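Morning run. Coffee first, then this:
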Amino acid sequence: MSEVVKFIGVGAVKSGSSWMASILEQHSEVSMSSRKEIAYFNTFNFNGTKNSSTDYGLDYYLKFWSKMKGVKGEVSPQYLFDYSAPQKIKNAFPDVQILIILRNPKDVLYSHFLYEQRFNQNIEPHLSFIQALDKYPYLIESARFSIQIKRYKEVFSPTNLHIYFLDNALKNPQEFSKRLYSDIGLNDIEFIPDFASINQSKQVGSKFVNSIIRFPSSIKQRIESSVFAISLNRLKASKLFIYIVKFRNKLLDKNIVPLIKPKLTKQEVNYVSDLLNEEIVELENLLGID
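And here it is:
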């Protein structure tokens, strides 16, 4: 069936999933979704808000591969975090290959905080790292990979579950791409992509421009809670809306600049260690790695 999605990268957040998506997209046998991070199968977003896209039919999801040939797939790190995503994916595509790329949870926690504060602007700019962790527990939960991976192990067989580690992949990227291509069933696994496209830390360039670009989203949220929600849902399932969102994302991408990460203080390092040491031990035992 041409509409079957063969592989789905489910994360993890801030662990190289965008880099992995780039390596997949460059292969001539692969058809990646036209929209980066469709985020269709997750019931909730990272910050706990409801994901309205999950209520649309599968036809909406498949429109992101309109007239595309090849091995279809996508990457959305929201799926690893969400409790309901594994079963939803399994129900839609029983034989799909699940791709998970991981990173040290301590590094993930800090990167996710910076991304949410400096780029998504979901965290107030005056909050310190420790203050944000106390106020927004979803940041900590996003780095608890052992819980997330167990959910996928309960739903998918070992032959459909592929776990990679960013540090290892960066040390030997060609070996990583070869394994990646093999795991999703490509013929030419020797193809060498451009590995230089790893996603750098970023932040908003102009906050004024960013507020203008994001303004329609606030209008959409108000409509979703009004009597006009049904009409909006019909529009959101259309190709026109998909095109509009894609255009908006391009504008957002043009309004970003590289972020030089502030160095963590000794207090922050110790705080994160106390939070995640048990998680790291649990993850090591689960995956049999150091």
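The chain has a mean pLDDT of 86. Good start to the day.
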